[in-house]
Amino acid sequence: MKERQQGGKLIIFSAPSGSGKTTIVKHLLQHPELNLEFSISATSRAPRGEEKDGEHYYFLSLEDFKSHIKKGDFLEWEEVYRDNFYGTLSSEVERIWAKGKNVIFDIDVAGGLRIKRKFPEETLAVFVKPPSIDELKIRLKKRKTETEDKINMRIAKASVELATAPQFDVIIKNYDLETAKKEAYNLVANFIGLSNQDDTVA
Question: Structurally, how many domains does the chain consist of?
């Protein structure tokens, strides 16, 4: 990993699937004053729905993904389910830092904590907590993108992930999405040293 560009911060949002972290990250990216750019993760899974390579994920074959692991190209990676890998390529973070921007992540809990450990001073690690496991299941079913078995796997994983919440710098309770968005905005604005952040920003 190259030397960090001056001023570049790392902002991590992690949570169980269905907690609302992706919606919050998209909201923050709409605010140019935060100077954020999204870190696109690599994955060995196939695209879903309208997902595009290089926009939503870097879609790699299982062989390519494992090759990158062997070369040490990942800042963090995780086998989330069997033969289903996700990770952050060091080159992706370097690309964003080279533009003088702050990097924002929407990643797995384990990956988020690994990055926090590698860059403790430069990183704000935020855990987005859902109202309940039951609510998570309802949200995942509404997506209609996965089988019942896959949803049950995600729910089982969510219980484990919720136990890691205290290891993050901040926990946002996403019981009301608009409130969670405002809280997230203020946290990030404060972390990057942006003055005049506004509690009313939506």
Answer: 1
